[in-house]
Amino acid sequence: MKIKLLTLGLLAAVIVPSANADRLVIKGSDTLGAKSFRNLAEQFKAQHSGTTFDIAAEGSPPGIAAIIDGTAQIGMSSRRAKPAEVRRFRQKA
């Protein structure tokens, strides 16, 4: 679990600065969003005071759906995307 969280943290560190946004929407896994991403957001805001985060920890399916439909810049998931979700993503891209 720690390795996965570290990987997500590193991924967020790469995605967030490259998003170059004042407001970032993060949706998905309540396992990750309840604490891990909130902590990452606070650490990031400490260095980039102009950035705000909207974090909705609603579960992995809404996180994956938010990436597919473009309503979030980061979709959190504590599981792998299902084949049907991957197909929907590819159809949108």
Question: Would you write up a description of this structure?
Answer:
This protein is α/β, with parallel strands linked by helices and 93 residues long. It contains 5 helices and 3 strands. The chain has helices at 2-19, 30-33, 36-47, 60-69, 83-92; strands at 23-28, 52-57, 74-76. It has a 3-stranded parallel sheet. The longest helix is centred in the first third of the chain and has 18 residues, at 2-19. The chain is globular, with a radius of gyration of 13 Å. The model is unreliable at 1-18 (pLDDT under 50).
Features:
single chain; alpha/beta; three-stranded parallel sheet; 5 helices; 3 strands; disordered N terminus
Helix content: 55-70%
| Oligomerization | single chain
Rounded to the nearest angstrom, the radius of gyration is: 13 Å
Report the strand count.
3
What is the string of SSEs from the N terminus onward?
HEHHEHEH
Largest β sheet strand count, sense and barrel closure: 3 strands, parallel
Number of helices: 5
Q: Could you tell me the strand content as a percent range?
A: 15-25%
SSE blueprint:
Layout: H1 2-19, E1 23-28, H2 30-33, H3 36-47, E2 52-57, H4 60-69, E3 74-76, H5 83-92
Helix pairs in contact: 1-3, 4-5
Short summary:
Strands 2-1-3 form a 3-stranded parallel β-sheet. The chain is an alpha/beta fold and 93 residues long.
